[in-house]
Amino acid sequence: NAGVMQNPRHLVRRRGQEARLRCSPMKGHSHVYWYRQLPEEGLKFMVYLQKENIIDESGMPKERFSAEFPKEGPSILRIQQVVRGDSAAYFCASSFRDIPGEQYFGPGTRLTVT
Amino acid sequence: AQSVTQPDIHITVSEGASLELRCNYSYGATPYLFWYVQSPGQGLQLLLKYFSGDTLVQGIKGFEAEFKRSQSSFNLRKPSVHWSDAAEYFCAVGDNTDKLIFGTGTRLQVFP
């Protein structure tokens, strides 16, 4: 049973470009969470999605960031017009029920903005 | 607002020594509490969790943690540390909604 998969593992973008981060949850999981980890900091919640629905996006920056979890395919975290401050590790987690802590984390995507 | 404090940024222990990593939380009701471990360049792995019941919980890799409501603490312990335990450890709190609130982490270094 494959775990949570994220790709790419490393992504380099120039300022102003778009970054697309993908997350495939564990089989049978319909809940996806995105977290961001800035250097030397803990993880910060960004958004929680179920299939085709955004449940909680209270941690998402108001501009340039968006997320989706379509009926078919992976969840996508999209960052438009990236800036240096977006450089971070972005982790996806999945669960099959919305009980915190029953979340299984992927290996993360490390975004570097040059 | 919920918050988690891990007062020790960096801890160094000798292999075979005992370990205790501190975690304090702020939350109005009984929280859900977790410890995760992150190896360099990797994602997070759940070590153990507390939802209710026995306040001493056992986890994987020989770790345990004790929930102390009076001290708002959930400290992680291991009686004898192995070199492979060197990693970053995160304490987290959750409620009955969705998100986890993480502490800033404690980096554990193990000397042979």
What does this structure look like?
The complex is a heterodimer of chains A (114) and B (112). Chain A is globular, with a radius of gyration of 13 Å. In chain A, the strands form 2 sheets. In chain A, strands 2, 4, 5, 6, 9, 10 and 11 form a 7-stranded mixed sheet that branches. By secondary structure, chain A is mainly beta. Chain A has no helices and 11 strands. Chain B is globular, with a radius of gyration of 13 Å. The chains are: A mainly beta (114), B mainly beta (112).
List keywords for this structure.
heterodimer, A: 114 residues, mainly beta, seven-stranded mixed sheet, four-stranded antiparallel sheet, 11 strands, globular, B: 112 residues, six-stranded mixed sheet, 12 strands
Give the class of chain B from helix and strand content and strand pairing: mainly beta
Biggest sheet architecture of chain B: 6 strands, mixed
Main beta sheet strand tally, sense and closure of chain A: 7 strands, mixed
Q: What string gives the helices and strands of chain A in order?
A: EEEEEEEEEEE
Could you report the average pLDDT of chain B, rounded to the nearest whole number?
92
Measured by residues with Cβ under 8 Å of the partner chain's Cβ, the largest interface is: A-B, 27 and 26 residues
Q: Given the structure, what is the number of helices of chain A?
A: 0
List the helices and strands and how they pair.
The complex is a heterodimer of chains A (114) and B (112).
Chain A: E1 5-7, E2 10-13, E3 19-24, E4 31-37, E5 43-50, E6 53-56, E7 65-68, E8 75-79, E9 88-95, E10 104-105, E11 109-113
Parallel strand pairs in A: 2-11
Antiparallel strand pairs in A: 1-3, 3-8, 4-5, 4-9, 5-6, 7-8, 9-10, 9-11
Chain B: E1 3-5, E2 10-14, E3 19-21, E4 24-26, E5 32-38, E6 44-50, E7 56-58, E8 64-68, E9 73-78, E10 87-94, E11 100-102, E12 106-111
Parallel strand pairs in B: 2-12
Antiparallel strand pairs in B: 1-4, 3-9, 5-6, 5-10, 7-8, 8-9, 10-11, 10-12
